[in-house]
Write a structure and sequence with these properties.
Enzyme class: hydrolase
Structural class: alpha/beta
Catalytic activity: a 1,2-diacyl-sn-glycero-3-phospho-(1D-myo-inositol-4,5-bisphosphate) + H2O = 1D-myo-inositol 1,4,5-trisphosphate + a 1,2-diacyl-sn-glycerol + H(+)
EC number: 3.1.4.11
CATH architecture of the largest domain: Sandwich
Radius of gyration: 22 Å
CATH topology of the largest domain: Immunoglobulin-like
Order of helices and strands: HEEHHEHEHHEEEEEEEE
Protein name: Phosphoinositide phospholipase C
Keywords: Hydrolase, Lipid degradation, Lipid metabolism
Shape: globular
CATH class of the largest domain: Mainly Beta
Number of domains: 2
Number of helices: 6
Strand order of the largest sheet: 1-2-3-4
Length: 273
């Protein structure tokens, strides 16, 4: 049969990485850096929990690709932050399923204009790293910060429940996603029947040990006493990208698109802890 002839220069550009089976963490015999191993989310999470530092050292030399578990027939997602925290480079999600995980994914790549690449912090690049995201010790990663968020007001929050007589009862939730001890969530009270200009004026404080791995998610929901609260909008940003002072946060829809005019007005203050 006829063989398709390809220019060698062209075929050389097709495969940069060689997929190999993961044989365990053997720091004494490093594998070539073009070898890449694939892990299901369960296997990767087990390694991250039991051997976080070894996983980081492995990922300083080689690529790791993480994919959703086969039982996720509903195309749901796992939390990508746990994988990023140990330096995994290719963290695959089900893009068709919107929710917190995809919001966080979109937020992570805010800082590079969505080019699809973010440089890992130095302590995740170090082949002799002593960092473990589940047990924070002293090191270059521990730059303790105190985040103060004053949620002041909202502007033109859309009505997501299409019921004829429905009026938005908004609440703001501020979440921290990062290393295990930094994860936190605080929420305002509910304002009844006002999506146009609700006023909260509530202040929250968060202690953050590893700011370079933290993301902050602002989420607004429509409270309902009898059914599940409706998602209105959110915005997620890497902690190091937060600008201080009075800010209008422009909310994104469930699909990640910007609303034309829905915002929340906040004051952000960052202090050394």
């Amino acid at each position: 049969s006829d063989k398709l002839k390809l220019a060698k220069e062209l075929s050389d550009t097709v495969v940069y990485c060689r997929s190999v089976h993961f044989e365990g963490f053997d720091g004494s015999n490093p594998r070539p850096s073009n070898e890449m191993s694939s892990f299901s989310e369960g296997k990767a999470l087990k390694l991250a929990q039991e051997s976080g530092t070894s996983f980081i050292r492995h990922n300083s030399r080689q690529l790791s690709r993480i994919y959703p578990a086969g039982w996720r027939t509903d195309s749901s997602n796992y939390n990508p932050v746990d994988m990023w925290n140990v330096g995994c480079q290719i963290v695959a999600l089900n893009f068709q399923t919107k929710g917190t995980e995809m919001d966080i994914y979109q937020g992570r790549f805010q800082e590079n204009g969505f080019c699809g690449y973010v440089l890992k912090p130095d302590f995740l690049q170090d082949q002799n790293s002593k960092f473990n995201p589940r047990s924070i010790t002293e090191g270059s990663w521990r730059m303790r910060k105190k985040l103060q968020v004053k949620v002041i007001s909202g502007q033109q929050l859309p009505k997501v429940n299409k019921g004829k007589n429905s009026i938005v009862d908004p609440r703001v939730i501020v979440e921290i996603h990062g290393v295990h001890r930094d994860n936190d969530k605080k929420q305002t009270r509910v304002i009844d029947n006002n999506g146009f200009n609700p006023y909260w004026n509530e202040t929250f404080e968060f202690d953050i040990d590893v700011p370079r791995l933290a993301l902050v998610r602002f989420m607004v929901e429509d409270f309902d006493t009898s059914t599940k609260n409706d998602f209105i909008g959110q915005f997620t940003a890497p902690f190091p990208s937060l600008k201080q002072g009075y800010r209008h946060i422009h909310l994104l829809t469930k699909n990640g698109d910007p609303y034309p005019s829905a915002t929340i007005f906040v004051r952000i203050n960052i202090l050394d802890a």
